[in-house]
Design goal:
- Helix 1 packs antiparallel against helix 2.
- The N terminus is likely disordered.
- The protein is mainly beta.
- The protein is built from 2 helices and 20 strands.
- Helix content is 11%, strand content 47%.
- The N and C termini lie close together (9 Å).
- The chain folds into 2 domains: 128 residues, Macroglobulin (MG2) domain (Immunoglobulin-like, Sandwich); 171 residues, Jelly Rolls (Sandwich).
- The longest helix is centred in the first third of the chain and has 19 residues.
């Protein structure tokens, strides 16, 4: 979002505030006394123009990538309705995969795999989506079985560089059971000690031993794709594949991949020297600097807040822009 000028930030001169109050009273008095529509409209126009006059010569712009407020990369995490998930099936052995309403952790639906042979292996792929490099994403999903019968399962995140026609790389969030997948809902990001002694959670294993590892792992369920590993590209493409194997029944629900931070970009133009600062909704200052003429840059900030770019010129002119609105 882009804003040229806006109302000045806090700290307007007292006289300015007083004049505005007087003008408001005049407008209301003129209106209720029936002094004429044209006169009232002229006063209204004057009132609208006053706040912008204080910021003359300042141009501000503030936006982020990914945009705020942040949204889940997985557009249909709970398998509710149609869209995002493609046709599933078994590529080995016999089995069935479908979205059902007989077992849901939340909402009314979940994804169910039924393996009808020991060597059964099936998957449900998603549409592609865009990922921002150099920011952390958090993966969460829930899984359960019927009588601990399936052999195993995983959620695979496949990724590729922008402009590539194929998905050559992938990484698996694996559920490797020492015995079986538990019969109650298990959150993937849960610490191993809090789940079950029968289940071992292995995070982010390359899907083949000789595959280049182009990602970093933080805290178990957080993954980062460094920009330097993708030719300094700002974005890469990805898709999910939910997989189950073995004889038995397994359900998946609430598949989530969310950004935790965003690149907040600011651009400012002033007629001379000025100072700027970026603050969040709690009042924390993330950036503060002085400049002359123009200034632009980007900072990495959490997605769970709103931000405000405040600029003051050397002559005392003030302006700000809030993001998101």
């Amino acid at each position: 979002m882009s804003v040229k000028t806006s109302a000045p930030a806090v700290g307007r001169p007292p006289r300015y505030v007083e004049n505005e109050k007087v003008l408001r009273r005049r407008i209301l008095a003129d209106y209720y006394s029936g002094s004429g529509l044209m006169k009232t409209n002229c006063c209204l126009l004057m009132l609208l123009l006053l706040p912008f006059a204080a910021a003359k010569g300042l141009e501000l712009e503030l936006f982020s990538d990914p945009p705020l407020p942040a949204t889940d990369v997985i557009q249909n995490p709970g398998f509710e309705g149609n869209g995002f998930w493609l046709q599933g099936g078994f590529w080995r052995g016999k089995g069935e995969v479908e979205i059902v309403d007989d077992m849901a952790r939340s909402g009314g639906h979940s994804l169910r795999f039924v393996g009808l042979s020991e060597n059964a292996a099936g998957q449900m792929p998603s549409n592609e989506f865009t990922l921002r490099t150099d920011i952390p994403y958090r993966l969460d999903f829930w899984v359960r079985s019927y009588r601990e019968t399936p052999t195993g399962g995983m959620v695979r995140l496949e990724y590729r560089s922008e402009g590539s026609d194929i998905l050559p790389d992938g990484v698996d969030a694996q559920i490797v059971p020492l015995v079986k997948i538990p019969e109650s809902w298990l959150r993937f990001s849960a610490p191993p000690k809090s789940v079950t002694a029968k289940t071992q959670m292995l995070f982010w294993q390359p899907r083949s031993k000789d595959e280049r590892r182009r990602y970093n792992v933080i805290d178990d369920n957080i993954i980062v794709f460094p920009k330097s590993n993708f030719g300094d590209q700002d974005h890469i493409r990805g898709r999910m594949k939910i997989i189950a194997s073995g004889l038995g029944v397994v359900w998946y629900d609430d598949i989530s991949l969310r950004p935790l931070e965003t690149w907040l970009t600011y651009r400012v133009r002033a007629s001379g020297s000025a100072s700027l600062q970026i603050v969040d909704k709690a009042g924390k200052v993330w950036l503060k600097e002085k400049f002359d003429g123009t200034r632009s840059g980007a900072i990495l900030v959490p997605v769970d807040s709103a931000y405000r770019l405040e600029v003051t010129s050397a002559s005392g002119e003030q302006s700000y822009v809030a993001y998101p609105e």
